[in-house]
Design brief:
Layout (H helix, E strand, L loop, with lengths): L2 H26 L14 H13 L4 E5 L14 E5 L2 E9 L7 E3 L5 E4 L8 E9 L5 E9 L6 E2 L1 E4 L5 E2 L5 E5 L6 H6 L1 E5 L6 E6 L2 E5 L9 E7 L4 E3 L2 E3 L2 E8 L3 E6 L4 E6 L2 E7 L12 E4 L2 E9 L15 E10 L6 E5 L17 E4 L10 H7 L6 E5 L19 H6 L4
Parallel strand pairs: 8-17, 10-18, 19-27, 25-26
Antiparallel strand pairs: 1-2, 2-5, 3-6, 4-5, 6-7, 9-11, 11-14, 12-15, 13-14, 15-18, 16-17, 19-20, 20-21, 22-27, 23-24, 24-25
């Protein structure tokens, strides 16, 4: 080889070796590169990753329901829980920014709203928690509660905490037709401290009443439990109620109206406490017979014949009395037991003259406590029983008012869906 060729060969070899050294330096970052088990990251990158891991909070936040949920429960939604840490701040707002009240539990492990959620409403939750090292974790969620179109409620009577008569059934009127009656009925329980068996009966797709075989035992307590949250009442329509209602049964008052003798015998706990002369429906407008329950009381109310079908040739009501005193409703179709100041005092106990109601002697203004109408009103409560007999008319329909007692026990039980 000539000297020129030898020099060119040495220069090429030197350049090749130099390139290897450059590549090695770029990929290694030091003499110990790739030899510390860090996957080739190098000591400095591993240290950065370790430091970042140390800064991440261990607190784990869970919000129910999941973000983006629709048809969420108005009872069991918006709950927050944390593990491996404690809650430091929870903010809940509606979509328009209204703040929803709530409280972090004493152990700082959970949070829930302090008010009932509304249907068809979007809520937003912003949550912060800290772990034992004081490192913060954050979680956000948004959900929408079930809409009114996709939910149902049951409007019930009597009210929580009320005292009612022995004839008062639990009556529930649903705001949407119920197709899955058995599932809905399973979510409703009615029990009595007396131990009486209670059975529920469906009159139609929107109404279910519950009662024992005989009148409630006086001075007992009845409990209604509604566990309907999430129960599918019809396709795509879910219950939203989750509550317990208690009401008390008062003294046993049953009044017997005899249209033939034109007397009403008022009994309490089986003993007659007063006999009152009455005037029932005339032979042309007979009063329903049967067991009727006082469903409403009005010290004064208007009674217009046109609203119940009593009209003259001009279509006007045969009567329109704007201040009927001491009125107590006995049926949805317009049967009342009420005071009467416009009739002659002589009719009470001697003649049936009304359009179907039961009248007691009274004064205009409902301000005389000594009249028979006032006495009976003052000594009656919603749920008391009025039994009407000897009118010559048919028995009132069981679903006309709160009058399911006119159905025998076998028929009543046959109307249960479970």
């Amino acid at each position: 080889m000539t000297d020129g060729k030898r020099r060119r060969g040495l220069m090429a070899a030197s350049a090749l070796l130099g390139g290897v050294m450059v590549l090695s330096a770029c990929s290694g970052g030091g003499g110990d590169a790739g030899s510390d088990g860090d996957g080739g990251k190098g000591a400095s990158q591993a240290q950065v990753d370790e430091a970042a891991a140390k800064k991440t909070s261990e607190a784990q936040i869970k919000i129910t329901p999941k973000g983006g949920s629709t048809n969420a429960s108005i009872n069991n939604s918006a709950t927050v829980a944390v593990t491996k840490g404690t809650l430091t701040e929870v903010t809940m707002t509606t979509s328009d920014g209204t703040v929803v009240e709530g409280e972090i539990a004493a152990d700082k492990k959970s949070w829930k709203p302090g008010v009932q959620l509304e249907r068809a409403t979007t809520y937003k939750l912003k949550v912060t928690a800290e772990d034992s090292e004081g490192r913060a974790a954050h979680e956000n969620a948004s959900f929408t509660t079930v809409s009114q179109d996709n939910s149902f409620i049951g409007n019930f009577t009597p009210d929580d905490g009320s005292t009612v008569g022995v004839g008062m059934p639990v009556s529930i009127n649903f705001d949407k037709a119920i197709a899955n009656k058995a599932e809905v009925q399973k979510g409703i329980t009615v029990s009595s401290s007396s131990g009486q068996e209670v059975v529920c009966h469906w009159f139609n797709a929107n109404r279910m009443d519950c009662r024992p075989e005989d009148y409630w035992q006086e001075n007992s307590t009845v409990t209604l439990k509604l566990a309907l949250d999430g129960v599918e009442g019809a396709e795509g329509v879910f219950g939203v109620q989750q509550k317990t209602v208690n009401f008390k049964i008062g003294r046993n008052q049953v009044s017997i109206v005899d249209a033939e003798t034109k007397q009403m015998k008022v009994t309490q706990d089986g003993k007659t406490v007063r006999t009152i002369p009455i005037s029932a429906g005339s032979p042309e407008n007979k009063t329903w017979e049967g067991q009727m329950v006082v469903s409403e009381k009005f010290k004064e109310t208007r009674m217009d014949g046109a609203t119940v079908g009593f009209t003259d040739d001009d279509g006007k009501g045969e009567y329109d009395i704007k201040d009927v005193p001491h009125a107590m409703r006995l049926s949805n179709s317009g049967t009342f037991l009420h005071g009467n100041y416009w009739g002659a005092k002589s009719i009470f106990g001697s003649a049936n003259t009304s359009h179907g109601c039961i009248g007691l002697s009274d004064t205009q203004g409902a301000d005389d406590p000594n009249t028979p109408g006032a006495w009976f009103y003052d000594n009656s409560i919603v749920g008391d029983v009025v039994v009407v007999k000897n009118t010559g008319d048919k028995t009132v329909a069981p679903d006309n008012g709160l009058n399911g007692w006119n159905m025998d026990w076998a028929q009543w039980k046959a109307g249960s869906a479970v």
